[in-house]
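This part of the workshop introduces the protein records we will be handling. A record pairs a protein's sequence with a compact description of its fold. Comparing a sequence with its tokens is the quickest way to learn the format. To make this concrete, we reproduce a full record directly below:
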Amino acid sequence: MPRTNEATPIGGASIAEVGMRGGGERAYSFSPAVVTLSAPHAEQAEAIRTLRTHIMAQHLDDGRRGLAICGPSIGVGCTFTAVNLAVALSQTGVNTLLIDGDLRKPSVQDLIRPAQPVIGLRQALNAEEAEDGVIQSFVLPNLSVMFSGGTAPDAQELLASDRFKDLVDQQLRDFDMTIIDTPAANSCADARRISTVVGYSLIVVRRNQSFISDMQALAAQLNEDRARIVGTVMNEG
């Protein structure tokens, strides 16, 4: 598997590219950390495209339509990898859905920034708040996004519900590829639950930060849960 870098700060203020609604209204801005847009010829973006090729050849072409992006600890670059991989897949015409599955410290909105507050996964899973519009379509051509919709104090219960499984199953039918960003595995069991529902996971680690023992522990947990690991990405430190 290729290695990817995460050298651009996520909180950068400049706009890499802007998604537009009908009529020219600005709908989304993109952090420079979305290197597949901001620096398509950079080494980081090339590494993401190499990862994309692997996913398309050994995952998508075999009929597997979902992937959970998991890391053993915080700060390894799961969100960076999930967002850039989703954008890269959409650029090849793959109808892609990106879901922010981190209901504790969501960060997809730091890279893909809606112009207005949007609802998302939390509302879709909350029986009292369920409503339409949880998926933001046409964020980019072939790219839709389900943001977290905010934090949830009962995140584990929401993700353990039948509603979450039904939601994921529906998106796996509706989209060519569904990518779900997950919280750090050493902070909660959410990543394991999401991986079990999706069926497949990609482990992300960081050079000079991640411990081999932590990665091995996460891999063992995913295998125990019968979530197939399709590969590992190492982000540079």
Notes: The first helix runs from residue 35 to 38.
